[in-house]
From TrEMBL, chain A:
InterPro entries, alphabetized: ChsH2_C (IPR002878), ChsH2_Znr (IPR022002), NA-bd_OB-fold (IPR012340), NAD(P)-bd_dom_sf (IPR036291), SDR_fam (IPR002347), Thioester_dehydratase-like (IPR052513)
Basic residues compositional bias, start-end: 1-11
Organism: Rhizobium oryzicola
ChsH2 C-terminal OB-fold domain ranges (all copies): 73-124
Pfam families for this protein: adh_short, OB_ChsH2_C, zf-ChsH2
Taxonomic placement: Bacteria, Pseudomonadati, Pseudomonadota, Alphaproteobacteria, Hyphomicrobiales
Protein name in UniProt: SDR family NAD(P)-dependent oxidoreductase
PANTHER family, alphabetized: BLR3430 PROTEIN (PTHR34075)
Domain called ChsH2 rubredoxin-like zinc ribbon: residue spans: 37-70
Annotated region (Disordered), positions in chain: 1-25
TrEMBL record, chain B:
SUPFAM superfamilies for the chain: Putative cyclase
Key word Hydrolase present: yes
Enzyme superclass (EC): hydrolase
Annotated GO MF terms: hydrolase activity
Organism encoding this protein: Rhizobium oryzicola
UniProt KW Hydrolase keyword: yes
Annotated protein name in UniProt: Cyclase family protein
């Protein structure tokens, strides 16, 4: 049933779990312009500022006019297949596990000719293709082509699945079921075909009205998980650590405060304990087992998602503690990304402005509906992104940070 | 004389005619703590992080770092805990007179009423009825409210509803009577507070805290095994940690109980 992708079935306990290998990852510093684009799902190539022509692969000077002014710019993501090759045998250890491998030579609409990975639904030479830059298992950008029109079960293409983190047939852990994002996220993951969704709930002795709504979703199971307790996190990892292919950390601790408030350090400690130390406890408990399961079959471990505030990138004075906590989480996420990359696990950070939830009651619009954030996270998994900016505030800060970080700092909270 | 009493006590303990009853619940991460509205400061729950476990961080030894709020698990409330007791002498756990750490206990069994009504309140009539049977409550004794609440756990123990916690405790006039008319040393409960779950709506709010601490008396909460104590005659050992200027602390509460002769 390869046409529909193999369904999850119990592993043969007598067989060894295959260990993850990574595709070749050497890239020039220039080529990380492609990585930057791929991380957020953009299609950007170098475009000469003098002659206006596009160039690929990444280089230091324009191949047409030798100008060194060669910035990355958005490019039309289309092209025509010139020729194709299906590789049957290779000596590369990673690709040996992914044979046969279909690749093609594509004439991009913007000019250059590139070698790209080909989705199996693509037609032969002469067909028009949709191009994208994807982050591969080693964390590097590669070009991939799909047909212009969607075909059924496109997500099951083995080459495409390696470049994404599709929830289909995978088991997910949502770390904090009390987060307003958790319920819409569980629904979106279920719609995307996740086979099981564990939802962590802390302080089960407190009322948890949403449990009924979680129970109504097929495949959802609420489990005890308190990120502030080393024992709780480790106990859950002992139980289900080997069954988590996607982990979404939704934990947060939002408390508006002023830097000179009495007792601020107490609430700051609580916030850091839930967010920063919570992420660290999760990483310690679930990171090692996810990392070794990066090649564990069609639905092996694939992604770790941190749900962060965009104010981790630029402090918002009214939510200074949360901003500082998420800045620390961002730093920690880069550390985690480096560790998990060795197993081919993608660490995705979603950045969001104020949510339309209780703690942001007095914050003026625009605010993000938790359902929009949930949909964006699942979309990011399906497309294989690394950085997701959700909502007007986050997108605005992203663009302005790119332009002038000092201006963002000066204007914060105005 | 004292040597004789203590010697006899030691012999009775060895012989088993005096039993030691542990009135303490286990400090664990998932034990409920008092819940305040989230915009207010919160009491930290019990947490334990491993330092080493005969491993690379300490090859021959096992130990942990622990953290908790002063009012976590089975704990002691000192007078300084409440605004009414803030100006009293010797009002914090480090200045607490050691003699006050040992005292007799009267156990008022309201387990049946609490079973029928989570919001059961101990009033003067209940106290007088108890005294009719067991005699007048002696001065400087602990009064322990037995509700068997400690046999519950998790959500049933915290019993949080949308309008707050529903757990038994003393009525305003009941606790005033114990403090002002009987001169008790302190008041102990099996629930998260010495006050009832809904006591924030009383006048004054939280009367047990208000009157006990305003008069230099103490509180014990999250007690267990009160069903193993006789109505009178038990001796309570309640020595909180000596925390500088501390408002309370988790502690081990022990009771000495003399076996009644069956001869």
């Amino acid at each position: 049933m390869t046409e529909h992708g193999p369904k999850r079935h119990a592993k043969n306990p007598l067989q060894r779990t295959r260990l993850p290998l990574l595709p070749p990852s050497a890239r020039s510093r220039r080529a990380h312009g492609l990585t930057l684009a791929a991380a957020s799902g953009r299609f950007m190539l170098q475009c000469c500022a003098e002659c206006g022509r596009y160039a690929y692969p990444a280089r230091d000077a324009c191949p047409h006019c030798l100008s060194e002014d060669l910035p990355f710019r958005d490019a039309p993501p289309r092209g025509e297949l010139l020729s194709e090759t299906t590789i049957q045998v290779t000596s590369d250890p990673y690709f040996r596990d992914h044979m046969p491998f279909r690749s093609g030579l594509v004439k991009l609409d913007c000019g250059p000719v590139a070698v790209v990975g080909l989705h199996r639904a693509c037609g032969g030479p002469g067909s028009q293709l949709e191009l994208s830059l994807q982050i591969d298992r080693a964390g590097q950008a590669v070009l991939f082509a799909k047909p212009l029109l969607e075909t059924p079960d496109m997500e099951n293409d083995p080459q495409w699945r390696e470049l994404t983190a599709h929830p289909k047939d995978r088991r997910v852990l949502i770390s904090d079921g009390r987060s307003p994002v958790a319920l819409p996220l569980a629904k979106a993951l279920a719609r995307a075909g996740a086979s099981k969704i564990f939802v962590g709930v802390f302080d089960r002795w407190k009322p948890f009205e949403t449990e009924v709504a979680f129970d109504a979703i097929d495949g959802v199971e609420c489990v005890d998980l308190d990120l502030t307790s080393e024992r709780s996190v480790q106990d859950l990892a002992r139980d289900i650590g080997a069954k988590v292919e996607i982990l979404v950390n939704t934990a947060d601790h939002v408390r508006p405060s002023h830097l000179f408030d009495a007792g601020l350090t107490n609430s700051a400690r609580e916030a850091m304990d839930v967010t920063v130390m919570g992420l660290m406890r999760l990483a310690q408990a679930f990171g090692p087992i996810m990392r070794v399961r990066g090649a564990d079959g069609f639905a092996g471990a694939v992604a770790w998602v941190n749900v962060l505030s965009v104010h981790g990138l630029s402090s918002q004075p009214k939510f200074g503690v949360q901003s500082a906590a998420h800045a620390a989480c961002l730093s920690l996420s880069h550390w985690l990304r480096g560790e998990l990359r060795q197993g081919g696990i993608r660490v995705i950070n979603s950045f969001c402005g104020p949510l339309d939830t209780e703690w942001y009651q007095t914050v003026p619009p625009p605010k993000v509906d938790p359902r929009s954030l949930a949909d964006a996270i699942v979309d990011g998994l399906i497309r294989g992104l690394e950085d997701i900016y959700v909502g007007d505030v986050a997108k605005d800060i992203e663009a302005r940070l790119f332009d002038n970080p000092k201006a963002v700092e000066r204007e914060a909270g105005r | 004389m004292s040597g004789y009493i203590l010697g006899a006590l030691a012999a009775a303990l060895a012989h088993g005619s005096v039993r030691v009853v542990d009135l303490t619940l286990t400090l664990s991460p998932d034990f409920p703590t008092i819940v305040m509205p989230p915009e207010l400061g919160q009491s930290a729950p019990f947490r334990m992080e491993r330092i080493s476990h005969y491993d690379v961080k300490g090859p021959a030894w096992y130990w942990n770092n622990i953290s908790f709020g002063e009012h976590t698990g089975t704990h002691f409330d000192a007078p300084i805990h409440w605004f009414t007791g803030r100006d009293l002498p010797l009002n914090s756990v480090d200045t607490l007179p050691p003699a006050d750490m040992i005292g007799p206990a009267c156990v008022i069994d309201c387990s049946k009423q609490a079973d029928e009504d989570a919001d059961f309140l101990l009033g003067i009539d209940h106290i007088l009825a108890w005294e009719q049977v067991h005699g007048r409550i002696p001065q400087r004794s602990w009064v322990l409210l037995r509700t068997d609440w400690s046999k519950k756990s998790g959500a049933a123990y915290a019993n949080l509803q949308s309008d707050g916690a529903h757990t038994p405790g003393p009525e305003v006039e009941g606790i005033r009577f114990l403090v002002e008319e009987r001169g008790i040393l302190g008041f102990g409960t099996e629930t998260i507070g010495t006050d009832a779950g809904q006591a924030g709506h009383f006048s004054p709010p939280y009367p047990a805290h208000h009157y006990l601490h305003g008069n230099g008396r103490y509180g014990l909460q999250c007690l267990a095994n009160l069903d193993l104590l006789p109505p009178t005659g038990a001796l309570i050992f309640a020595a909180p940690l000596k925390i500088q200027n501390g408002s309370g602390s988790p502690l081990r509460v022990l009771a000495l109980v003399q076996e009644r002769s069956t001869g």
